[in-house]
Amino acid sequence: MSDALFSEVTKAELAHRGWRMVKDRIFGVVMGVGGVTVIIALVTIFFYLLWVVFPLFKSATLAPTHDIRLPATLAHLSLNEHGDVMFVVEADGTYRFVSAADGAELKTGSLVPEGATLQAGASAFRSHGPLALALDGGRVSIVTPVYRVSFPNDVRTIEPDISHPVGTEPLEVLSAGGEIARVAIASGDDNTTIAASDVNGRLTMAHVAPAEGLMLDEEDLSFETSVVDVAALPAPADHLLIDVDQQELYVVTGREIGFYNIRDKEKPKLVETVQVVPPGVDVTDVQFLAGGTSLLVGDSRGHVAQWFPVRDEANNFRLTLVREFKALDKPVRRIEPEYFRKGFAAIDVDGHLALYHTTSERTLLSTATGIAGVSTLAISPRAETLVAVTADGAARQFALHNEHPEVSLSSLWGKVWYEGRAQPEFIWQSSSASNDFEPKFSLTPLTFGTIKAAFYALFFAVPLAILGAIYTAYFMHPKMRAVVKPSIEIMAALPTVILGFLAGLWLAPLIETHLIGVFSAMLVMPLSVVVMSWVWAQLPDGVQRLIPPGRELLLIVPLLIVMLWITMAVSQPIEQLFFGGNLPRWLGTEFGMTYDQRNSLVVGIAMGFAVIPNIYSISEDAIFAVPRQLTTGSLALGATPWQTMARVVLLTASPGIFSAVMIGLGRAVGETMIVLMSTGNTPVMDLSIFQGFRALSANIAVEMPESEVNSTHYRVLFLAALVLFLVTFLFNTVAEIVRQRLRTRYGNL
């Protein structure tokens, strides 16, 4: 070759190499930028989820806004919805609507009829709803503050007024007259119940209902009052309370609470008397929690205890101590519950105030208010404003910020004793048609459902996928492998919504009808393969040559189809013969096992088909990539193909197989549509394969569209997403660590 020609070849080769280096660098930069972008995206998602979730765990704040002056003879104080108007009742029955901003008087009048006097020491439902005023002669007048809101010229205007829900005439609740010492009221659905105790301890109850007869306009309604004697108390009652459903009456005398069943208004019945504080401790205040089911009992130790009726083994209600709060060091002076939520405020004799939430068992705030001797405490219905008033009428208003008191680590992950339940439980129930419903945000049943779905999916998918990968990579004929492997991998492209649809509407009824056949197939089909393999090995060599090595699948697949058909065909006759024609019903009758049509078995099979392609493909690639010199060397040393597979190939491919299983686990944990469509989607904690469940991902998909933005429900759903994110990250991290160790250990075989 001439020097000129050699020089031209060299220049062309150098130019080609230079261009290759440029392309390699460009590709490297692109890959690097892509990798960094993925990491940035993941970190951004993590911090965004954290940013949305963080407010759930912030403490409440209480900031004083201003002081105003109220009458020293204050008998009642309540606030309107946003806390900008106060309803003030004085000891002589004079009422005032006062602007909370500056104390300006908006409206005034008298609640006491002419010639009547308001009894000293009378009490009522403290802060919201109808107010019962005890008058002389054993009479009670019932009034309700009304706030009419309008927007003339786009300016919010409030017109306060007084309504009389059962008429303007006072009601006689002490049949023989007398001086009322305590009074309680509950009203709803045109019925009103009033309880009163006189100074001698006589306890009576009055029930007010619309008079029977023709339907009249609201202003023409007349009411009938029935009065019954309930009990003769050993001393005048310290507190009286009637629940909002007008079925229970609580009478506090000394250290004891008398629990009365008043469902039959003509025959009140004492259920039990419970001592609610230990000897040497006094009850200082008692109030209903929002909803009117739980009692909040404050005492001289500074403790506040929550009590509510719980059914015992004999199905009778018993007043039970559920939880206790101990943030105050001095005797509790006043307890004020929130209007909508299960939270409350308590203040001691020194003016130290604490905010609590019962269900989450959180002490949200503990702070000094700077005013001692508080005699009245009020919270606006939206829990935005709090007002504390001393005995001489000095009032201080506070701005209250308390967005998400319902959430704590114990309420999210621990058992919670909810009102109306017999014991602490894990419950997720974010909404209800009931107005007094309390949201229940336990993530434990959802996490349990996620783990259960992943377990059954992998239980079904891992053996099939890995054994199929072993056969395809090591034993199958290359031409058949070129057909089988792509066919299985293309299953990964099947939309999961289709699998969920088929599982819910076709597979679930099929399994219920042929339950015996399904379980029989799980046992019969593997045994059939083993038996056929043994029979095939016993046949003469001439017969075995009819099907070349690696093509045995041509015999196995028809056999499996036939055996599956047989198991399904005999399923119904077996059920008729041994299980009365209905195995699910028989399981319930004999073993108490509930069978849901859309259950964990259906999910396991459907999700298994979704997970199999990923596990199979990665495992098959890992096994097929084992160097041939390792397998041929093992065979040359006298090992059988199965010994070579078990002791050489699988150990060398174990990092890839483990990665495949972990990727399948991540896919199963995050699966949404199959779980959503093929289960009952009920958040129950039951290990039974015949029960459904609800997974975190499915719960987010179902409830996120209906959640209010920035509400507690909304943020808890984001917390569920954060939990999924962290669990997936943890699985992938552990998988990578284990994979690297396996590669280090077996990579040099």
Kindly name the structural category. alpha+beta
Q: Shape, please?
A: elongated
Total E-strand runs: 30
Q: Largest sheet, order of strands side by side?
A: 1-28-27-26
Total helix count? 15
CATH homologous superfamily of the largest domain?
Answer: MetI-like
Q: Provide the helix percentage.
A: 25-40%
The largest pleated sheet is described as:
4 strands, antiparallel
Radius of gyration, taken over Cα atoms and rounded to an integer in Å: 37 Å
- Uncertain regions: pLDDT < 50 for 5+ in a row? none
CATH topology of the largest domain: MetI-like fold
What is the strand content? 25-35%
Please, how many domains? Answer: 3
Can you tell me the CATH architecture of the largest domain?
Orthogonal Bundle
What is the first-to-last residue Cα distance? 47 Å
Account of the 3D structure:
The chain has 749 residues and is α+β, with helices and mostly antiparallel strands. The protein folds into 3 domains: 60-75 and 278-425, YVTN repeat-like/Quinoprotein amine dehydrogenase (Methylamine Dehydrogenase, Chain H), CATH 2.130.10; 111-213 and 221-275, no CATH class; 444-505 and 597-746, MetI-like fold (Orthogonal Bundle), CATH 1.10.3720. Helix content is 39%, strand content 26%. The chain contains 15 helices and 30 strands. The strands form 8 sheets. A 4-stranded antiparallel beta sheet has the order 1-28-27-26, with no helix packed on it. It has a 4-stranded antiparallel beta sheet with strand order 2-3-4-5, with no helix packed on it. Strands 6, 7, 8 and 9 form a 4-stranded antiparallel beta sheet that branches. A hairpin with a 7-residue loop joins strand 16 (256-261) and strand 17 (269-275). Helix 12 packs antiparallel against helix 15 (712-746) and helix 14 (696-703) runs antiparallel to helix 15 (712-746). The model has no long low-confidence stretch (mean pLDDT 85).
